Amino acid sequence: MNNTIVRKLEGKVACITGGTRSIGRAIAEAFLAEGASVVVNGRDTVKGEASLSEMNAGDRAAFFAGDASRQETCEGIVDYAIERFGHLDICVLNSGGVLNTAPVAQMSDEEWRLEIDWNLNHVFWGMRRALQHMIPRQSGRVIVTSSVEGKLGKPGIPGYVTTKHAVNGLVKSAAQEVGTLGITVNAILPGIIETDIVRATGPESAVAMGLAGYDEMIALFCADSAIKRPNRVEEVAAVAVLLASDAARNMTGCLFPVDGGSMPY
Known about the structure:
A seven-stranded parallel beta sheet has the order 3-2-1-4-5-6-7, with helices on both faces. The chain has one domain: 3-Layer(aba) Sandwich (Rossmann fold), CATH 3.40.50. The chain has eight helices and seven strands, in the order βαβαβαβαβαβαααβ. The chain is an alpha/beta fold. Helix 4 packs parallel to helix 5 (158-178).
């Protein structure tokens, strides 16, 4: 009997923005477990190097420091992955989140620009650079972490909601452009997940949404779902592995909710 374990991403190379914690960290660990080599990005070099040590993947994991709201970081991680491992098969544009909690009438120009750069331009810059490498090879996977708010809307977080709607459109458009070249472009739409980031920004977001506090915000999101609990980062990572694998070669331009059944369509 042949007991050889076939790993889904054996020999593949991936880069992941925002890959040292939360959803990005879970995706990195899942990719490594399936045989990929991975470059993860984060702003803090000390935390980034510590995350590599915790992943315990040896030479198959590397860290690229930089702020994902800046063009040089989004393009640089792609270039670094190619320099380090020779090519790039999978680009995961995961960084992003709720930066500002304010109604439209109270949001400043600077707050708006920050939301656009982190949540939308980051995806455009990274996707463009990755596709420039993938198109000549006629192979590749681009995976974007979007949000269920890219199909819905919530008060008090207009920058986040707007950019996620735009990201979903970008994914669909890019998929149409490269679909005949062996390249897929997809988005994962997580529902509420109690990550460290959500716990840090949640109380302020709850107030902006007109709620009494953090617990009320979590309860509101969970009440809309079928499973009545927050989603988990590992559940998002499992979908990312599928989309990065050969099994998903004809899945493109799709928006995959990982939300416990909270989206109405």
